[in-house]
Design a protein that fits this description.
Helix content is 26%, strand content 25%. Helix 3 packs across helix 4 and helix 5 crosses helix 6. It has a single domain, classed as Rossmann fold (3-Layer(aba) Sandwich). It contains seven helices and ten strands.
């Protein structure tokens, strides 16, 4: 695998030919600004939830207390996506207004809502929280998927060994297969430990990941090489 650092992607070159199957280290907004429009076929991402998350072992998420990246990041995601395509983004219910405003400002339309049901409570306060959410976003007028997945899916615990908010492959794979085609480039600009990228690889897709944290960038690259 190409393990290039966070160097600019030439706008005259295609991700399909020169930066496929790559995890880049750096700020995703800055890196995406160097990517030519329309180079990604599908985006599946799990950005910071803006909730100052800290797990039991003290691990935190970069930029999880700062929303300044939200609007520019999704503006670049929209630009980098090809015409008539999809983006699936996880988000926090407590800041849904901020995420929806950023998606709409970028040009996305809300195409659907996904709920992932957990057999355990990830948090308890006024309620016992047993689910995660993501929105299906559309750019332009994409064709209907050949296989349409349900909007409620079961969640299998990943163990969060590699990352404090590590998503299980079992929920990512059907999303990738539904909203992209074999050999498509699946991009995750907040790739963390690389679960989306590994799911894309196993599904016969190419991938481009971006990660701000050097440790998690290294973790993401390891199983993909």
């Amino acid at each position: 695998m190409n393990t290039a650092q966070a160097k600019p992607i030439p706008t005259t070159q295609s991700v399909h030919e020169h930066f496929k199957d790559t995890v880049l280290l750096g700020d995703c907004v800055q890196i995406m600004r160097s990517i030519a429009p329309g180079c990604a076929d599908f985006v599946l991402t799990d950005p910071p939830y803006l909730v100052r998350y800290c797990d039991r072992s003290g691990r935190r998420i970069a930029n999880d207390a700062d929303a300044s990246w939200l609007v520019p990041a999704f503006a670049e995601i929209f630009r980098v996506l090809r015409r008539d395509s999809f983006c699936v983004s996880f988000y926090s219910w407590s800041h849904a207004d901020k995420f929806i405003a950023a998606w709409r400002a970028a040009g996305f339309h809300l195409g659907g809502h996904l709920t992932f049901t957990k057999p355990y409570a990830s948090k308890e306060r006024f309620l016992r929280y047993h689910h995660e959410n993501a929105y299906l976003l559309t750019k332009g007028n994409p064709a209907l998927p050949a296989v349409r997945i349900p909007d409620v899916l079961a969640w299998n615990y990943s163990g969060n060994r590699l990352h404090p908010t590590q998503k299980p492959l079992g929920i990512l794979t059907p999303i990738i297969k539904s909203f992209s085609q074999p050999e498509d480039v699946v991009m995750d600009p907040f790739c963390g430990s690389g679960s989306t990228l590994l799911a894309a690889k196993l599904a016969g897709r190419r991938f481009l990941g971006i990660e701000l944290d050097a440790h998690y960038c290294s973790v993401a690259r390891d199983p993909l090489c």
